[in-house]
Write a structure and sequence with these properties.
The structure is a homodimer. By secondary structure, chain A is α+β, with helices and mostly antiparallel strands. Chain A has helices at about 15-25, 45-50, 70-80, 90-105, 115-120, 125-145, 155-170, 180-190, 195, and strands at about 5-10, 30-35, 60, 65. Chains A, B: This is maleylacetoacetate isomerase.
Chain lengths: ~210, ~210
């Protein structure tokens, strides 16, 4: 059976979709892109059949459909080990996963659309508080683990999560002054091609006024 | 250097701590237990030095301190592969991680204490809505992946996340009627010793009135 090209269901501004796009670039995989609006009411019945959670990203690959960005990135890592996104040393690998989970479970869900809608007028303040509180802890963690990037000098899953989260922080006008390590690593990563071509400003569904 | 016994910082009712306790039992590791109250204002400066995020669980092990339950469980898997908590087949492994992340990133953070405090009078309704919406999707996913347990017939990381989340659902009085697959798997898992001895009703800090 000829293998079909995987389909990535995503949305240009979704930070979780961006994580997967960076993984796609790093692994030199090529996905077809199916654009799904990030606004829940516009989700189609068709997409609900693809991903019952109706969230992006979702990846149709090798006959299965996966959701959850880190599960998708782990699958790419398991099936295409090079270049690796997890260090060989188990302790460093644990630190990579700790930082990734800290962002993916500890920060991003709290500033997600569904929560912000409930916050009404306090929306902006809530998002800023959640991100700042997460970044304070992350800054301390990175002071122990970072080299050029989040853990040592190799790009890892942690970096795939960091850059989209800093992008969100900037959208919510979080003061990045107290986070010099996060800021330095983010800048270094944005110089790499994989982070540039996957950037929200360069996707097929990016509106003209937001294009880089 | 003699290896010291790992220390698990946890709290009896924390669902994230429970995930790690089940992992500890499955891997036949023995952790010292450091009890940390689940209420933020009571967190000590000492614990902030252990885990800058001031969240449980945290594990001091092999000279490093890890936070984030799934990162901790992955570290146990990497360093003590048997009995395994991830299937050998990459597709099944991806399904395990998808289900685990769905709970850990997609459900639990939305009904976490910090969010509920913001919801005021709507607290209970909000928690129920988040869990129900997550369980609707999970029920559909499990219909494709489940055997005796979440993915096939082996206990996996997904199961370590499922049981504590159902426990939370019961605390928030979520109607479990629409989720027969979740209910069946949860019941089967609660018959296993690793899930029983790690149960919130049997921890050193469980109040007398909640003890099993």
């Amino acid at each position: 059976m000829a293998s079909e090209k995987p389909i990535l269901y995503g949305y240009f501004r979704s930070s979780c979709s961006w994580r997967v796009r960076i993984g796609e670039e790093k692994k030199e995989k090529e996905f077809l892109v199916a654009v799904i609006s990030g606004l829940f009411p516009q989700f189609s019945a068709e997409f609900k059949a693809v991903n019952p959670m109706q969230q992006v990203p979702a990846l149709k690959i090798d006959g299965i459909t996966l959701s959850q960005s880190l599960a998708i990135i782990h699958y790419l890592e398991d099936t295409h080990p090079n270049p690796r996104l997890l260090p060989q040393d188990p302790k460093k690998r644990a630190q990579v996963r700790m930082i990734a989970d800290h962002i993916v479970s500890g920060i991003q869900p709290l500033q997600n659309l569904s929560v912000l809608k409930q916050m009404g007028e306090k929306k902006m303040e809530w998002a800023q508080t959640c991100i700042a509180s997460g970044f304070q802890a992350l800054e301390q963690i990175l002071q122990h683990t970072a080299g050029h990037y989040c853990v040592g000098d190799e790009v890892s899953m942690a970096d795939l999560c960091l850059v989209p989260q800093v992008f969100n922080a900037e959208r919510f006008k979080v003061d990045m002054g107290p986070y010099p390590t996060i800021t330095r690593i983010n800048k270094a990563l944005l110089e790499l091609e994989a982070f540039q071509v996957s950037h929200p400003s360069r996707q097929p569904d990016t509106p003209a006024e937001l294009r880089a």
